[in-house]
Specification:
The protein is of the alpha/beta class and 822 residues long. The chain is built from 29 helices and 23 strands. The protein is rod-shaped, with a radius of gyration of 58 Å. α27 links the parallel β22 and β23 (773-777). Strands 1, 2, 3, 4, 5, 6 and 7 form a 7-stranded mixed sheet that branches. The longest helix has 53 residues, at 204-256. The structure holds adenosine-5'-triphosphate and magnesium ion. The site of adenosine-5'-triphosphate has 20 residues, from α12, α17 and α19. Magnesium ion binds next to α12.
Length: 822
């Protein structure tokens, strides 16, 4: 059997020579997997012994043989039954002996023949044959078929790599339709049986039609093949492209040293985070982000975002705590070291710590220091932290309007950061610091969310175990943090927050306390701060008292400390200039250093005229005195109230007017009973810039009015506070301690207060209680008796009318009061 070593593409070399006379019988050479075609050149490789013998015999004779395709290509020596019946006569054109004993032949195909009868099978096959010539009927259809076949084949040649381009030219130049069909059939890669059909068909028209179909199908297969190929290509592209690009990028990064950087960074963070005992869900998130970080080049924007995020996680004290020092004696010592007085406050703090000591994991309530500025709220917090051995962090809630300030912004925002709570935790470096949340009463709220509810989540022991910052988006346990809040007043603190606080009020200091604080704490501290030795800054008690009285007016000691600081600086300058200040700074020297005194006792000056009464008020910055002025002028019974008063205060002014109007004959018997009808009354509370409200100025207004009507002066050493009913009863008020302190600051020695407030004096330091003369009252009459100077008869109320008083007038006046009820 013969192996084909190449397709019959050598056809173009064929010179159609003279056909030799066809013998009746010829040796038959079976071909494996190839079909011979007439008039084409076929290269063959021959190895079988039987075939070698055949070729040798043929070469010795007329060189002719019959090439016949085998139906069963896997058989080495197929017999007649395994061979087709139609083949091609060939003439051996060239023979080459290969050293391994096989032969290479080039056989020129000639006529198509039919095997009529087998005459021998050994040593090789021999058969009787007859020629099968083409049947050709010229027609336009045939020409059309020819052209079509040529065209389609040329397309195939272009699409298929195994067909040389020269075939296009050869095919275009063939004029014989039968030859054309053989040439094309021979060069295509088709299944053997299909080729055999093309060989056996003698009718050229039919053969071309068949070939057209085959070619059309081939072209289709080829184009689908390209399509599939390009699709596969693009599928592969997408996944591979990225891979390849990444590889390239990596190579570039490595070249630039960047990749190392990225990996090194991720590794550094990984190591850092591996050392931290993270909660499970945090660990998962961290691993995820680390994986992402490694695969991002440092230049990617996302890279920086992830790195910052991981750095934040690494910087938080997940597992770092400090050990608490719950030695109560130690705590007491520390508190005393830092603060003078404040006995009750210190006691409360010690109790609080005692409970902590007995029940360390108790979810403590939140301590809240409430009091005026400068009384040591913040510094007490620091002392507690020092006593406990905890880190101290101060967080200001004042002016916080945006929830995000507390809880941070989501990571999707550019420049997002954790909120103030986590920032403070990072700064503290331990997960159980003492957080002082200052000015919790000054937290605002607006469209950006309610910071109070975020603060509640922070403070509430029920919720703060899983505090979730928007930026971190992971829970952080805040339950070990000790919170202390400070406020000037609890009025503006939202209810739910207030409920969770254990309030400790710090009212303010008396002048004596201030003196002690100054001597023991402020002077040494300021000496220190200004680089003076202790002995170089000595201030006498008299000087300090002068500073307290004339250069400060405050509930706390901040201003006092500042003034002492001012003295210290001046002394420091003298020392620096070579002086050697010896001895103490006395009152005169202090005044000299501080300049003109800043505050004057106004009470005396203000109450020089009748119609002015001194009241005591409570404000978030401590108690204060306020002056209420009443005046009247000709008019028609109108009441004017000025001085930025709130509704409640205006109402109590009206009530006071109604009361004095009803008691006009008692209060000012000289006035005509229709006095209120012919006069306008104006009540003014100076200090218009400060809004004032509350009912506790009631008796003060009534006193100012009574003073105006009667012309009796209000005593200048007296200040008062109390709500008043229309019937003249005096009702209790709040903040007596603050008010008492304010009275003292203003040089007042007597306080008129509601009798129901008498128990409150216990809160007032004893030495102050002794100095101040309290006058407790139940009725406005008592107030007026105590506050108004005796009538001297010589000073009539201003604009006092001289009209005579008739009975009718009085009745009228009473009626208008009842009906108009001003
Ligand atoms: N009893 C005291 N003994 C010693 N120093 C005191 C005392 N009270 C306050 N001080 C000092 O007064 C200064 C002001 O106190 P601090 O800043 O704590 O006031 P505060 O109550 O927090 O005021 P604010 O409400 O304005 O924040 C601090 O230097 C503090 O040490
Ligand atoms: Mg403070």
């Amino acid at each position: 059997m013969i192996d084909v070593i190449s397709d019959g593409t050598g056809a173009r070399e064929v010179e159609v020579g003279m056909r030799q006379q066809l013998p009746s019988a010829l040796p038959v050479l079976p071909l494996r997997e190839t079909v011979p075609f007439p008039d084409t050149l076929t290269p063959l490789a021959i190895g079988q012994e039987r075939s070698v013998a055949l070729v040798n015999d043929v070469l010795a004779g007329n060189r002719m043989l019959v090439m016949l395709a085998s139906r069963q290509p896997d058989l080495d020596e197929p017999g007649p039954e395994e061979l087709y019946e139609v083949g091609v006569v060939g003439v051996i054109a060239r023979m080459l002996k290969v050293p391994d004993g096989t032969l290479r032949l080039l056989v020129q195909g000639a006529q198509r023949v039919h095997i009529d009868r087998w005459t021998a099978e050994t040593p090789y096959l021999v058969a009787q044959i007859s020629e099968m010539p083409d049947v050709l009927e010229e027609s336009p259809e045939l020409t059309a078929l020819m052209r079509n076949v040529q065209q389609t084949f040329s397309q195939i040649v272009e699409a298929v790599p195994y067909l040389p381009e020269e075939l296009q030219i050869a095919v275009a130049n063939v004029e014989d339709p039968g030859g054309l069909s053989h040439l094309i059939s021979g060069s295509l890669r088709l299944p053997t049986d299909e080729k055999q059909v093309l060989l056996e068909e003698c009718n050229v028209g039919r053969r071309l039609r068949r070939l057209t179909e085959v070619l059309a199908r081939e072209l289709e297969v080829i184009s689908i093949g390209t399509e599939i190929q390009s699709q596969v290509q693009s599928d592969m592209d997408r996944t591979q492209r990225e891979f390849i690009l990444r590889q390239q990028l990596k190579a570039i990064q490595e070249e630039l040293g960047e990749f190392d950087e990225s990996a090194a960074e991720a590794n550094e963070l990984r190591e850092q985070l591996a050392a931290v005992d993270l909660p499970e869900d945090v660990r998962k998130q961290v691993d995820r982000e680390l994986g992402r970080l490694e695969n991002l080049p440092p230049a990617a924007a996302e890279h920086g975002v992830i790195r910052t995020y991981l750095e934040w996680i690494a910087s938080l004290p997940w597992d770092r705590s400090t050990a608490d020092n719950l030695d109560l004696e130690h705590a007491r010592t520390v508190l005393d070291e830092d603060h003078y007085g404040l006995e009750q406050v210190k006691e409360r703090i010690i109790e609080f710590l005692a409970v902590r000591r007995l029940k360390p994991d108790a979810r403590g309530s939140i301590l809240s220091f409430v009091g005026p500025p400068g009384v040591g709220k913040t510094s007490l917090g620091k002392s507690i932290a020092r006593a406990l051995g905890r880190e101290f962090e101060r967080i200001s809630a004042g002016g916080v309007r945006d929830e995000a300030e507390i809880r941070g912004h989501r990571r999707t925002y550019i420049g997002a950061m954790p909120g103030t709570i986590l920032r403070a935790l990072r700064d503290a470096g331990s997960n159980n610091p003492l957080f002082m949340i200052d000015e919790i009463d000054k937290m605002g709220s607006d469209f950006r969310g309610d910071p109070a509810s975020a603060m509640l989540e922070v403070l509430d022991p029920e919720q703060n175990q899983h505090f979730r910052d928007h930026y971190l988006d992971l829970p952080f346990d805040l339950s070990k943090v000790m919170f202390i809040t400070t406020a000037n007043t609890l009025d503006t603190v939202p209810g739910p927050l207030r409920d969770r606080m254990e309030t400790i009020e710090i009212a303010g200091y008396t002048n004596d306390e201030k003196l002690q604080i100054a001597k023991r704490y402020l002077v040494p501290r300021q000496a220190d701060r200004n680089g003076l030795k202790r002995g170089q800054l000595r201030i006498t008690n008299a000087a300090l008292r002068a500073v307290i009285a004339d250069y400060t007016r405050e509930a706390g000691v901040r201003e006092l400390e500042r003034q002492i600081g001012a003295i210290a600086r001046k002394v420091a300058r003298e020392v620096a200039e070579g002086g050697n200040p010896k001895g103490s700074i006395g009152e005169g020297r202090a005044r000299e250093l501080l300049g003109r005194k800043r505050y004057h006792s106004e009470t005396k000056r203000r109450t020089r005229l009748p119609g002015v009464a001194t009241g005591l008020a409570w404000t978030p910055v401590g108690g204060d005195v306020l002056f209420i002025e009443a005046t009247a002028f000709d008019g028609e019974g109108k009441l004017q109230i000025t001085g930025q008063l709130g509704e409640v205060m205006k109402e109590s002014a009206q009530a006071a007017v109604s009361y004095v109007r009803g008691h006009l004959s008692q209060l000012a018997p000289d006035l005509p009973s229709d006095w209120f009808r012919t006069h306008d009354v104006h009540i003014h509370v100076p200090g218009g810039a400060i809004p004032k409200d509350g009912p506790s100025a009631g008796i003060t207004m009534a006193t100012a009015l009574a003073s105006m009507l009667s012309g009796r002066h209000v005593r200048d050493d007296i200040a008062m506070t109390g709500e008043m009913t229309l019937t003249g009863q005096v009702l209790p008020i709040g903040g007596l301690k603050d008010k008492a302190l304010a009275a003292q600051r203003n040089g007042i020695s007597c306080i008129i207060a509601p009798e129901l407030n008498e128990p409150d004096t216990e809160e007032i330091p004893e030495h102050l209680r002794k100095k101040l003369n309290f006058h407790f009252v139940g009725q406005i009459d008592d107030v007026l008796d105590a506050a108004l100077e005796p009538a001297d008869g010589a000073t009539p109320p201003r604009r006092r009318t001289t009209r005579s008083v008739t009975g009718e007038d009085r009745v009228y006046a009473r009626r208008t009061q009842a009906t108009q009820g001003e």
